[in-house]
Amino acid sequence: MKLLDSTDSGNSSSIERTQYPYVTGTSVIGIKYKDGILMAADMGASYGSTLRYKSVERVKPVGKHSLIGASGEISDFQEILRSLDELILYDNMWDDGNSLGPKEVHNYLTRMMYNRRNKFDPLWNSLVLGGVKNGQKYLGMVSMIGVHFEDNHVATGFGNHLARPILRDEWHENLTFEDGVKLLEKCMRVLLYRDRSAVNKLQIAKITEEGVTVSQPYALKTFWNFNAFQNPTVGAEGSW
Amino acid sequence: MTKQQANWSPYDNNGGTCVAIAGADYCVIAADTRMSTGYSILTRDYSKICKLADKCVMASSGFQADVKALQKVLSARHLIYQHQHNKQMSCPAMGQLLSNTLYYKRFFPYYSFNVLGGLDNEGKGCVYTYDAVGSYERVGYSSQGSGATLITPFLDNQLKSPSPLLLPAKDAVTPLSETEAIDLVKTCFASATERDIYTGDKLEIVVLNADGIRREYMELRKD
Lengths: 240, 223
Known about the structure:
- The structure holds two protein chains of two kinds.
- By secondary structure, chain A is an alpha+beta fold.
- Chain A is built from four helices and 13 strands.
- The longest helix of chain A has 20 residues, at 74-93.
- The termini of chain A are far apart.
- Chain B has four helices and twelve strands.
- Chain B has helices spanning 64-85, 91-104, 148-159, 178-195; strands at 17-22, 26-32, 35-37, 40-43, 49-53, 56-62, 112-119, 125-130, 136-139, 141-145, 202-209, 212-219.
- Chain B: Keywords: Cytoplasm, Nucleus, Proteasome.
């Protein structure tokens, strides 16, 4: 990123700022369940309208106690992972028996996103941060301009519109692991049908007091033969 | 080639309404707990109220990231004040600090609409109301945020506030009792929730008086 500004003599170019994202991931969904947090995201990264990359891991562990899921610009996510890596490294180097929990990591991310927004050069991501430490479950979200909150279920992008309503209706305390996965799959299926940047290859990650497990990539079963979608133009001749 | 315009905004409105009413020896500060963006609700359980000092509570609505940053700055400054003066900041002092902090970012404002409530140095209720860049005044009651346009006229009617143009200035502190004031606040929010889409879910009420601080909640419509 060029750091010249218009005060440099004879140079009329201004400080470059992020204008728009290039390679982007779509929704991430996170829920609290009995033993910890479950997070789901598909493995797609789009280049505008092209579904360019189909094996991108958008959910990653952070330290011992947290998981981060990102939607938005993938290169900015990689930058964030590098910063978090450094953060965890320095935390470990203290070697004092203490370790950064999900609340702390969420706060660090919030400060990072807000400060970049203040410089008009945002990291173009919406992040989901979940984890368990000392039995306390934590799930939060940060947007690219620094808006942040925690809740029992969160989602980014299209997930906010399509998945949150399902979660508001069907989420409850002490979901079992199986029920949690079923609920996430239900949300991911709706996103697959209705979000054009979704791909049918997803990973579900789980974090509990014991540690992190990220599932192998798999596909959801879909059904395209609903009666209402057969002969779709029958009621409106000339449409497509 | 024309200079590229940014296609993202550094601001967002996360909605919500805040109200504060000053009494003879108490202060009521209230805000809803809904956080929204556009036509979506992000969360139904988010507090807009922040205790800055023993006798000083702030409620803010607007752009949540700026609100949180502002609360952090003020809390940090209060901690420094305590280290330097070995006492809590008074509400009028915090009032001035908030105004200065807001004006400091006059040319890239905190998009935060604040009401500050507490007890002044004589133990009387005091409410300060602000705009986004720090202009403020002490009033008997105030409302800010998305539902303010619905609530302020109702409070003007119920609290029969003397005109701020009168000389000598008449005390605007309400003669209502603490219970009556809390009831009034609940009525305000129930009404605002009906017509303002950004207000609802739950009402958080903080009451400051000589005995200390107390918190109360009331359910609001979730649609």
